[in-house]
Amino acid sequence: MFLMLGLLAAGSIFFPGIFLASKQILEQLMGWSEVDAVVISARLVSSLQAVMASSAGWTIVSSCRDVMEDRHWLADAYILFATPYFCYDLLAMFLCYWFRLRVKGHQEAGPDGGSVCTAVLGFLRREVLMVLHHVFMVAFCCPASLVWRQGRGDYFQGLLFLAELSTPSVCLGKVLIQFQRQDWLLHRVNGAALLLSFFCCRVLLFPYLYYAYSRYASIPLYRVPLVAPWQCNLGAALLWPLQLYWFSLICRGALRGRGH
């Protein structure tokens, strides 16, 4: 219990701490504006978390020969450490939204309580899918991974961590757009890397989870949803359509970029 609370506390301090330290460095030492410092710091923390999650995922997957019974301590430890990240990230995304409104001079970015409430409602309308995704990760995926798995399937948990491989490309692309560097070769290379990593690590992830279990259990692929725990089917049913939707947005953005 103390270890679990310690990991949760460590994550609760680590991610906001990196954000605040990065913001201070960009503002005080590099002279960046507050809005740029906030947005870049949020992207930095997201990329750092993605690298850590992907590293943990690769370590777990490469060490598990039996996809159901082999254990690795990182599977549970990183879930506990990273769960506070999703709460922090919601706040960081709102701060990015709010500071952008202040720069644009929107009324809802004012200091009074009513204006803040208006900004929160505007943020929720704009980022409803991402907010629901983060709430679902904390409220459902965390207990499903820590309690309902009952110590089995660390291999599959590692694969889920590997979904974060696409996040650094997402963050870099947004940073380049923020600084209007769409004409750089780096933007095009990053766009190709984003398409490939998102498709492989998020779109193909859920079908591969079912395929890997069908091979383990020596059953046809179509029978896996019938024997898999309901928590797995519910998680896949809710998360996979989101990945397909976001991938369609990425493809549309890439096509618009080619048109210009």
TrEMBL record:
Keywords (A to Z) from UniProt: Membrane, Transmembrane, Transmembrane helix
GO biological process, one term: ceramide biosynthetic process
Principal location listed in the UniProt entry: membrane
GO molecular function: sphingosine N-acyltransferase activity
Topology in membrane: Multi-pass membrane protein
Domain TLC: 35-259
PROSITE patterns per the UniProt record, alphabetical: TLC (PS50922)
A GO term from the CC aspect: endoplasmic reticulum
PANTHER family: CERAMIDE SYNTHASE, CT120 PROTEIN
Protein name per UniProt: TLC domain containing 3B
Organism: Poecilia latipinna (sailfin molly)
